[in-house]
Amino acid sequence: MKIGITGATGQLGRLVVEKLKQRVNAEKLVALVRSPEKAADLGIEAITFDYTKPETLAAGLQGIDYLLLISGNEVGQRKVQHENVINAARQAGIQWIVYTSLLHADRSSLSLAAEHIQTEELLKTSGIPHTILRNGWYTENYTASIPGAVGAGAFVGSAGEGKISSASRADYAEAAAVVLSSEGHIGKVYELAGDEAYTLKDLAAEISKQTGQDIPYNNLSEQEYAGVLTSLGLPETLAQAIASWDIGASKGDLFDDQKVLSGLIGHPTTSLGASVEEALA
């Protein structure tokens, strides 16, 4: 039984490989990556695998039984790229696909949701047994801004009082590793989110507590926040997208209190305090 991991050199992919190596023999793992040389430090077999070169994909999947399809990072290109992989998986006789989707993708107002739902539909019609991991927000999406917030003396966003049930990338990676290395998951859709929900005001309070500085949360309009991000050097389309995701958070798109993730991994998800501490370190 061989497990292929797409995007294995990405931020989530590397953590999945690390967690899988704790559960299965490294010889059973294959990194499916654009640049195999970047996977040299993973300590597993690496095969060239480029979502944008459909004619090469089936060959890359030969000998692989289970496939973790980590969603591509090119927003707007994902449906086509994922379709290429799913078609190749069918040709290569893949027995099971596990896909990383988005929390409540079927009812989320986030712009990211559409491509995830399209991919879920492709899996349904593919005839390949599959499992959907609907990952909630990564806490790192927010904690990455902490150094800048400390420097500026305020944390800014447009999420209002929206509750965010995020978890660390490592938590989601562990869930993927658990599912891929155990029985009884085929046909399931898992809504994965952190145990504790917080607002950005709560996050700012935690940063203040740990730094000993007064870091307030300043809630901006969507356009104001996009403008701040653009002024920091982000491309305008990305700035607009990030601001819109915060609006989604204000509508509850990032909230979930079912604790499915901690149930899967068998321990509480990483606390907000621990994630802030890591970002400050």
From TrEMBL:
UniProt domain NAD(P)-binding: residue ranges: 7-180
Matching Pfam families: NAD_binding_10
Gene3D superfamilies for the chain: NAD(P)-binding Rossmann-like Domain, UDP-galactose 4-epimerase, domain 1
InterPro entries cross-referenced by the UniProt entry: NAD(P)-bd_dom (IPR016040), NAD(P)-bd_dom_sf (IPR036291), NmrA-type_oxidoreductase (IPR052718)
Domain of life according to the entry: Bacteria
Name used for this protein in its record: NAD(P)H dehydrogenase (Quinone)
Organism per entry: Sphingobacterium wenxiniae
Lineage of producing organism: Bacteria, Pseudomonadati, Bacteroidota, Sphingobacteriia, Sphingobacteriales
